[in-house]
Backbone:
């Protein structure tokens, strides 16, 4: 009787963990020290549907959706329609050429926030220069956590500052670890999105993209980029006298040489002033290629999208497009039938019956399973 009670207690813990969408460890120790352990991971899948003309399809029903993981049909636990509220983290890059356009960035972000619906919650993050141990250092600054208050958000935008560097990867890590709530509110489920205004070229982070990406993917948030083209500005200020020129950071130079592999015989130069103009342009080209590839990877795997702009004058219209995209997004959640904790990549496929001919589904396309 006691053994049956203990097993039922463990089962109840597993049900509660599934109900609240939390990775949880249920553990009961029996007299012989055997351990019963249950692990769950709610996988969130943001997706959008457009017809052949690119217009959103807003009539998708949960009963019409079939979800597959590695070709195996899964049971859908949650379905959130386009009417469900959103949690949005807004990351504003105010380094580099953006430093002279701070007011424009503020106004564009405020217009974006105003376009969201009542009940949507927004957090705002930026970069700022801080003095640490007598040195000016670029740091991530969370201006406000998730809130529905439009007045609080507008006030926080007034605190947006400029930065002498771009700790972009550090910002992604902080979003993944600290900004979104740990648990899913089942009574009022919310879809999640991250909106990033940046060129994506990191310069000062302690973190690296490869270490941040797995944490970021676990959010189940659609990632939207407003990709600013800053390459011409950067390269115009990169050439000539090394004292007056805009410099690469040490991390950027190391990132460039890492692309050649360990066996490469290329001569590595760490002193910026020893780099000729040709080498500076080669490094710049590679850094922007890396940034573009990383953006495309996060957008694709999360079910998000990239909106390129030529300069910040186009930011407001790009934010409006992102708001439209968010407004037509769905989300679903499921617990994988594959219980192996092998750390392997698992492919997700969403199928929807009854769609008009030529309709396109854009969804999160996979995730890495938890490892032991």
Residues:
């Amino acid at each position: 009787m006691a053994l049956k009670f203990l097993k039922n207690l463990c089962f109840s813990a597993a049900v509660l963990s599934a109900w609240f969408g939390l990775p949880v460890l249920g553990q009961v120790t029996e007299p012989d020290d055997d351990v019963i352990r249950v692990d769950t991971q709610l996988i969130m899948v943001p997706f959008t549907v457009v017809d052949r003309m690119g217009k959103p399809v807003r009539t998708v029903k949960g009963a019409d959706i079939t979800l597959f993981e590695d070709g195996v049909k899964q049971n859908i636990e949650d379905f959130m329609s386009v009417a469900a509220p959103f949690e949005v983290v807004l990351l504003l890059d105010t380094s580099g050429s953006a430093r002279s356009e701070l007011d424009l960035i503020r106004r564009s972000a405020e217009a974006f926030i105003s376009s969201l619906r009542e009940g949507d919650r927004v957090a705002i993050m930026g970069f700022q220069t801080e003095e640490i141990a007598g040195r000016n250092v670029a740091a991530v600054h969370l201006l406000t956590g998730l809130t529905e208050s439009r007045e609080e958000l507008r006030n926080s935008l007034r605190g947006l500052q400029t930065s002498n560097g771009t700790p972009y990867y550090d910002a992604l890590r902080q979003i993944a670890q600290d900004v979104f709530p740990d648990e899913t509110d089942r009574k009022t489920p919310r879809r999640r999105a991250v909106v990033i205004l940046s060129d994506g070229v990191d310069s000062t982070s302690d973190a690296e993209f490869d270490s941040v990406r797995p944490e970021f993917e676990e959010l189940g948030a659609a990632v939207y980029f407003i990709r600013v083209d800053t390459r011409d500005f950067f390269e115009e200020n990169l050439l000539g006298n090394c004292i007056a020129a805009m410099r690469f950071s040490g991390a950027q130079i190391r990132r460039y040489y890492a692309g050649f592999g360990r066996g490469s015989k290329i001569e590595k130069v760490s002193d910026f002033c020893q780099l000729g103009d040709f080498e500076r342009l080669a490094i710049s080209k590679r850094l922007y290629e890396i940034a573009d590839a990383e953006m495309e990877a996060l957008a694709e795997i999360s079910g998000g999208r990239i909106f390129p702009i030529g300069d910040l004058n186009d930011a407001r219209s790009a934010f409006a497009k992102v708001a439209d995209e968010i407004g037509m997004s769905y989300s679903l959640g499921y617990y994988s039938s594959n219980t192996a904790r092998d750390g392997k990549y698992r492919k997700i496929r969403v199928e929807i019956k009854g769609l008009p001919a030529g309709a396109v589904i854009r969804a999160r396309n996979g995730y890495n399973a938890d490892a032991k």
